[in-house]
Amino acid sequence: MTRAAVLAGLGGCLPPRLVTNEELAARLDSSDEWVRSRTGIRQRYMAEAGVLTSDLAVGAGSRALKSSGDPHVDALVVATTTPDRPCPATAPTVASKLGLGHAAAWDVSAVCTGFLYALASGAGLIAAGGAERVLVIGAETFSRILNPADRSTSVIFGDGAGAVVLRAGDPDEVGALGPFDLGSDGEGVELITVPAGGPPPDGMDQGPAPEDYYFTMQGKKVFWLAVQRMGQSAQTVLDRTGWRVEDVDHLVAHQANHRITRRLADEIGLPRERAVSNIAEVGNTAAASIPLALAHAHAAGALTPGDRVLLTAFGGGLTWGATTLTWPAVERS
Ligand code: UT7
C-alpha cells in the first residue's frame, strides 16, 4: 500500500528582540511608511549575539515534537540559509541538542524555498519506507548576513524558526501531504546571493570585498519571478492533487512581501482573504517563513481540521516549489 507523510506536530520559535520599522529607519534612509506600504512589514525579530540558528531550530523543533505527542523521530532535516558553520551541517547539532540520539540529520539549502525542499525530502523518505517519523525545521538567523548599510534588504528579513513533525500514514487520511512540484533555475544565481564565502582565493586571485559576504537581492526582478513561479507551481500541484482553486481554504505562501502574496492570489484566482499572512509581525524569515506562518494561523485558530491548504515558495537559486495538504487536528504547543 502507498505510504504518505502526515503532519503530526507543529511549532515555532522567535528570538525575544523585537525590531520595529522605526528603529531601522532611524539608521537607514527609510521610513515606517515606506516599509509598511511596500512590503506589509511592521516589525521583525532578531537573534541576540551568541544565539545560533541551531538554538532557534531547537526551540521550534521541541515545540513541534511536543505537539506531536512523541519525542522520537528517525530523521531530522534542517532548511537554512544561515547555518551555524559552513561545515558541518547544522542538523546533527540540532538533533543532539534535542536528544534525538543517532537520528539521521542533514541540512537543505534552498534559501526561501528551503522548507518546502526539506519537507519534500522528509516526505520522500517516509514514502520510501526509510523512516516512520521525520522532524522538518526551517530556521534562520538571517540578520547575520544582512548588510547594515543596505536599506533594501535590512528592512525585509528577520530571524526565527518553524518546524513540523511528519509521520507515516495513509494518503487519504486528514493531514496527508499531497504531491510536490519543485524547480530551479541556476541562471538566476546572481539575483539572490551572498557572493563570497566559497573556497578561499588561490594564487594571484584577489580576495572578495568585505561587502561580498553580505546577502544581496535584486528585488524588482525577483518580485515578478516570485509571482510567476509560485503561481505556476501552485497550479501544477492543484492539478496533481485534483483540487480546483476554489477548493483551497488557505494559501500559505512564502512571506516575501504582502504585495507578492496578493498578486499570487490574483494570479491563481483565489480570493485574497484566503491567503495566510504573518509578514507584518515577523518580516521575511526565509526558510522559516512557511512553518512560522502555519504556526501563526494555527495559534490564531484559523485552521480547521479538514481544511485544504496550498503551500508555495520561491527563493534564491533560483528555486521554487509547492505542495498541498489537508489540515489535521494538531495540538497547540
Ligand atoms: O524571499 C525571497 C524572495 N524575495 C522576494 O521575492 C522579494 C521581492 N522584492 C520585493 O519585495 C521588493 O522589490 C522590495 C520590497 C525589495 C523593494 O520594493 P520595490 O517596490 O520593488 O522598490 P524598488 O526596489 O523598485 O525601489 C523603489 C525606490 C528606490 O528609489 P528610487 O531609485 O526610485 O529613487 C529605492 O532606492 O525605493 C527605494 N528604497 C527604499 N526607500 C526607503 C528601497 N528600499 C528602501 C527603503 N526605504 N528601505
UniProtKB/TrEMBL annotation:
Give the reactions, separated by semicolons, that this protein catalyses: malonyl-[ACP] + acetyl-CoA + H(+) = 3-oxobutanoyl-[ACP] + CO2 + CoA
Q: What's the subunit arrangement here?
A: Homodimer.
> Some GO term, biological process aspect, for this entry: which one?
secondary metabolite biosynthetic process
Please describe what this protein does.
Answer: Catalyzes the condensation reaction of fatty acid synthesis by the addition to an acyl acceptor of two carbons from malonyl-ACP. Catalyzes the first condensation reaction which initiates fatty acid synthesis and may therefore play a role in governing the total rate of fatty acid production. Possesses both acetoacetyl-ACP synthase and acetyl transacylase activities. Its substrate specificity determines the biosynthesis of branched-chain and/or straight-chain of fatty acids.
Annotated Gene Ontology MF terms? 3-oxoacyl-[acyl-carrier-protein] synthase activity; beta-ketoacyl-acyl-carrier-protein synthase III activity
Segments of this protein annotated with the region ACP-binding: 255-259
- UniProt protein name: Beta-ketoacyl-[acyl-carrier-protein] synthase III
| Domain called Beta-ketoacyl-[acyl-carrier-protein] synthase III N-terminal: residue spans | 107-186
Active site annotation, chain numbering = 112, 254, 284
Encoded by which gene?
A: marP
**Residue intervals of the Beta-ketoacyl-[acyl-carrier-protein] synthase III C-terminal domain:** 238-327
Organism classification? Bacteria, Bacillati, Actinomycetota, Actinomycetes, Kitasatosporales
Spell out the subcellular localization from the entry. Cytoplasm
UniProt keyword annotations, A-Z:
Acyltransferase, Cytoplasm, Fatty acid biosynthesis, Fatty acid metabolism, Lipid biosynthesis, Lipid metabolism, Multifunctional enzyme, Transferase
Q: Which organism is it from?
A: Streptomyces sp. CNQ-617
Family, according to the entry, reads as follows: Belongs to the thiolase-like superfamily. FabH family.
